[in-house]
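ugh ok fine here u go
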Amino acid sequence: MIDLKKCLSDREGFLVSGTHDELVDLVFSDESDEYAFIGARGFFDTGKKHDLIPDGYLLRGVFELGEIMSGTSLFLVLYVFARQGFKECRFSTLKLKKPLVAKARGPRGVRDLCKIPVDRFSDDFQTYLQAVEDYSNGRSPNCPSGLGAFFGIPPHDLAEGRFTPAFYSPRNREIRRTLEKSETTALSEVAEILMPRKVTDAGRNVLVLRPRNIKFPVHLDSLERGEATTVPLRKGDIVMCLVGEENRAIVFDRDGDEPVYAGTSMAVIRTTGISPEYLCFYLSSDIAKQALSSLAGGIIMKHLTLRDLSAFPVVKPTMDEKYYLSEYAILSGHASRDYKDLECLKGAEPSATEEILDAEIAEKIQAYNEGQLRSFLSSDIEELNTCFSHGAYKAAIILAGSILEAVLIDWISEINHVNYFEEDYLVRDRKNGRMRRADLIDYINEIKYLERPHWMKEADMAHQIRKKRNLVHAKLCIDTNEVNEETARMVIEYLDKVLRTRGAHCLG
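structure:
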């Protein structure tokens, strides 16, 4: 039986680096039916370290533990190796994001380095560790999904030289099966790959694009200055991070007379037969991330080599490059709040891989759109809270109605792919049958109809906000008992619940 507390205790006092682990040598020095010990994630993935495993033994489990060793950023895992004959190899991935270990009080001494402070583990982390111990011993893990994921595979599905839990997750296994069915070509066949290097006696006051600039939305107007490299960037170059867990990438599209140089620890990819925007999405997607993870070396910091990238399989796109160009324009921040229907730009039917990629991009676009909406509303929401806090209840109620109307117009615009801030949204008048410009009541009822059977409660709240706003408009210059702090508070609370259905809010 595996005793996780004992494994944690045994880990202390032994040094581990990218090239050597003293504990591994000791563990494998004694003959046993099973070996269970804690080591660095990725230790056996590099070089020929898997040759250290005794003949006749297979990986029976790897369970993520996180960065819990004092004085080091090593990500630790529990390794279990056993003689052949077991029916399932088990894994767990750690999902818990908040600190696993409470901060120590007082100054940290030298003797605290490489210690594992079990007494300061958080309650959630202890729950996860108990589930790890149970699962590693063949029992069912009792663990909330937000803390960790547990899964198993038959031993014959183990990949040679692969000991990382995430590699075997159900999602990543499905991605690999999809890639195997897709038509691929080596990256070197569709692009030139350049690795920036420092230049002796180069300029020291030039614009340099560094890894921290590789993010969405793309802002290349505030690049820092530094030393030149061997690669000045061209418009349309893909710049990709080679170091770290995520292979982020952007398309360089900065205009200007002054040259910009790619920093080191990045690759510059110049496409020759494929859309830069598609390739950028593909290389930084979950699909590629999982495939690239099997190539990346390093324990403390993952990194990719030119050889890795050159042979990397790229799925050929079937959809029109205009589609990916439009998606990229949205995520890069170069398109204003856009309500166009991108589906019509797809052209051919997407491949299985493109469907996965498309779903991932759509998720990112949704998150970006929500961010745009929050930014769009931020000044009005700030003004709303200011009015309320200073007792300007009439103004607060009127402003709440305006915010509600703007949100609903944005929502309908997104559904219909028409910018109704620029074009009139027309509805048929029930009394005379003529088309007229929509009012707030029409926006509410339309969203209620389109989102049925959901959004029913929110629609009722929206109507209450509308009614209170209309009351204020009608009696703007007349004192009324209904225009007070209680009414304004109710309106703001209702508005907050409506906004949350669109990824925004007006209350903390």
